[in-house]
Design a protein that fits this description.
By secondary structure, the protein is mostly helical. It has ten helices and no strands. The protein has two domains: about 100 residues, RNA polymerase sigma factor, region 2, helix turn helix motif (Rna Polymerase Sigma Factor, Chain: A); about 90 residues, Orthogonal Bundle (Arc Repressor Mutant, subunit A), CATH 1.10.10.10. About 25% of the residues are buried.
Length: about 200
């Protein structure tokens, strides 16, 4: 009887508990930072600096400019964090600020994102794609990311680095969910084609 009762007890997913604890801790940090707690703000910077650096550098691909943009992003965050109404939305809000800063920089560089996206998706194959294939070779993934258009580099970084869902990606990139889905589909196929070509040359 005792063994049956033990077997029927629900299994606790420790990974989910850990993720929940991390999200709660982040919300507490945001609330403290909004109350002008500098230590909490510094911890938020530490928490996101490496991932945000990767995100910005993948789009800008210039180390000096990436550092400048990151400084501007954190300055924007410091100045406007008090206006964030939902602490749980901090991650998406942070990447939205970074996105806007990158777009401003690229516009100054006279980058036509629409034209670059058209070139990137030229001759794309449309058969099925397994997301796991993208992650099997880190070097190839980085190589392929550098070959993608700015828009496709951004959406792939948000999807696979930050593990954002379509709704979150759409909010960061300021587009509809349908557009986000379409861009993600084309970006996956573009990356697949680039990786396949690179493997063929190896």
């Amino acid at each position: 009887m005792g063994q049956r009762a033990a077997a029927e007890r629900p299994v606790i997913d420790l990974t989910d508990l850990h993720d929940d604890a991390q999200r709660l801790h982040e919300r507490v940090l945001v609330l403290r930072a909004q109350a002008v707690d500098r230590a909490a703000f510094d911890e938020l910077v530490t928490l996101y600096q490496e991932r945000l650096t990767y995100y910005v550098h993948r789009l800008v691909q210039d180390s000096h400019q990436s550092r400048d943009i990151l400084q501007q992003v954190w300055l924007d965050v410091f100045r406007t964090l008090g206006k964030l109404q939902s602490p749980g939305a901090f991650r998406v809000w942070l990447y939205r600020i970074a996105h806007d800063r990158v777009v401003t920089y690229l516009r100054r560089q006279i980058v036509d994102s629409d034209a670059r996206e058209t070139l990137a998706v030229n001759a794309i194959e449309t058969d099925h794609w397994n997301d796991l294939d993208l992650l099997e070779n880190v070097e190839l993934v980085h190589f392929a990311l550098n070959k993608l258009s700015v828009i496709h580099r951004e959406i792939m970084t948000l999807r696979f680095l930050e593990e954002m869902d379509i709704e979150e990606i759409a909010r960061v990139m300021e587009c509809s969910e349908g557009t986000a889905k379409s861009r993600l589909h084309y970006a996956k196929n573009a990356m697949r084609r680039i990786i396949a070509e690179e493997r063929g040359h190896a």
